[in-house]
Amino acid sequence: MSPLKAVAPDGTFVTGPDTTERLLTPGEVARIFGVDPKTVNRWALTGKIPSVRTPSRQRRYRESDIRALLDAS
C-alpha cells in the first residue's frame, strides 16, 4: 500500500503528506442518519454515499463526505 493512502490505528485516513481525515464506521454513520448499519453499507454499494476500504477490506466513510451529505439536506 502506498504511504499516501493509509489508515492509521486512530481511524484517520492519510491522503497526503500533511493531510489526515477521520474515517467513520458503518455504525457511526448509521447513528448519524438514524438507520441500521446494513443500510449504510447498501447505500455505499449503490453509490449513494462514497466509501473507502481499509487494508482488511472493511468499509469506512470519510467524515467530510458525511458532513457534505448532511449539509446538502
TrEMBL record:
Residues 23-73 form the HTH merR-type domain. SUPFAM superfamilies: Putative DNA-binding domain. It comes from Streptosporangium jomthongense. This is BldC family transcriptional regulator. InterPro entries: BldC-like (IPR048048), DNA-bd_dom_put_sf (IPR009061), HTH_17 (IPR041657), MerR-type_HTH_dom (IPR000551). Residues 1-20 are annotated as: Disordered. The lineage of its organism: Bacteria, Bacillati, Actinomycetota, Actinomycetes, Streptosporangiales. Gene3D superfamilies: 1.10.1660.10. It holds the Pfam family HTH_17.
